Amino acid sequence: MVDAPKDVPFKSAQVESIVVMKIVKHCSSTFPTTATGSLVGMDNNGVLEITNAFPFPTADVSSTDGHQSDASALAAAAPRSKANITYQNEMIRHLREVNVDANNVGWYTSATMGNFVNLSFIENQYHYQRDNDKTVALVHDVSRSSQGALSLRAFRLSPEFMAAYKEGKFTTEILQKSKLTFRDILVEVPVITHNSHLLTSFVHQVAAPPETAEVPLPTSLDDIRRDPVTMPAHPSFDTLDLSIDPFLEKTCDLLLDSIESHYSDLNNHQYYQRQLAREQVKISQWQAKRKAENAARVAAKQTPLPEDEWQRLFKLPQEPSRLEGMLNARQVDQYSKQVDSFTATITAKMFAVRGNLLPE
After folding, report:
1. Distance, CA of 313 to CA of 263 (rounded, Å)
2. Which whole-number Å values give the CA distances from 327 to 72, 153, 164, 273, in the listed order?
3. Secondary structure of residue 152 in the 3-state scheme
4. pTM of the model
5. Are 109 and 121 in contact (CB under 8 A)?
């Protein structure tokens, strides 16, 4: 379980089971298009209780492959669009009229194989967290949940990144002074799923499985007629499959794409450094020439020329923002952790059959 950091205004996010079902249904119905929605609830003694959720309306875009990226982009930007902000305020007003928790506590979004660390996610969370510090972003990974285990994580922006994003300057000098790294962008908050008392009572009334798996043999034909013998479930041989997990292959492909994006951003920064070095050499040559001219003019008892004209004659290139590189590094870290979790079972299978794989 994730431990809550000290600088977070709440210790954990408690999500009602009905909210989990709403998020899972919405994200699964729109997959692979990104799904977003609003969260309502309240802060109760350091626990952010999320009691209800509703989806954001999205523009009607054709579902063809050519427009799939446009639909995902519109859905990803939905939480901060003016129309959806008005829609969210109207929904909260209606919820308040029926005595339901009507405090906005964040938003939720869907993800595919952990691919959610991008500029749109940062802008959405900054939009919520700027006005209300007690907000959170729930991320539901549809691909990971399809394996049988629910993947629902909560994130928020760190105070250091909030201050840096407010300034809007992500240069190398500022990042070195603030000591801000890609690990300081997001803070993960523990998620606790909570059931209502009515649902808990129903769960306790569900019949428990039999204590023993052995079926007693019938003593007569009447026993068979009264209680027919049911055949046991067929054993599963999926655990003996030696093929590589398709989720691992997809994660590795996404990891390679993120690494390529990181190298592209690195090449852009190196190009900026080369441009800056060339301009600085030109400035140094101009300053040396101007100093020599001024020395000659002083010797001839003439007025020296100003030595700060280089600021008007030369224009230094602007350093590109390092924010994209930080987000790529954070996404690479996310994929690396997923690969590490996927390879545990596969490595065990490979070691189990390594005798047949090695050449004799």
Report:
1. 33
2. 19, 18, 14, 21
3. strand
4. 0.71
5. yes
